[in-house]
Structure formats: structure tokens, C-alpha cells
Amino acid sequence: MIEWNDQGKIKSFKVMIRPYQAVEKSQRKNARSIGGIKNV
């Protein structure tokens, strides 16, 4: 999330991080998806 001042410059920003369990689940899901792709 980015917040700008009146001059159009970045005033502040936040980096949102997912919980580690969500990252692991996403990695497993992507690995299964990629594993199902065959070379053409």
C-alpha cells in the first residue's frame, strides 16, 4: 500500500506479507499445476 503527499511523492508504504503456511500451500499448488504440464 502506497501513500503519496500533495507533491506526488511517496509519503509511506507498507509491504503486505502472507503467513508462511499460505506461502507453502501456494507453492504446493503451483508445483502440482506445473507438474501436470507436458512438453509439446
Largest sheet: 2 strands, antiparallel
Number of E-type strands: 2
**Widest sheet, order of strands:** 1-2
**What separation lies between the terminal Cα atoms?**
40 Å
How large is the count of helical segments?
Answer: 1
Helix content estimate: 40-55%
Shape: elongated
Overall pLDDT level = 84
Radius of gyration: 18 Å
Low-confidence stretches: none
Task: Output the structural class.
Answer: alpha+beta
List the secondary-structure elements in sequence, H or E.
Answer: EEH
Question: Quaternary arrangement of the chains shown?
Answer: single chain
Q: Which strand-content bin applies to the residues? A: 15-25%
Summarize the structure in words.
The chain has a two-stranded antiparallel ribbon. Strand 1 (2-4) and strand 2 form a beta hairpin. It is α+β, with helices and mostly antiparallel strands and 40 residues long. Helix content is 40%, strand content 18%. The N and C termini lie far apart (40 Å). The longest helix is centred in the last third of the chain and has 16 residues, at 20-35. The model has no long low-confidence stretch (mean pLDDT 84). The chain is elongated and about 50 Å long.
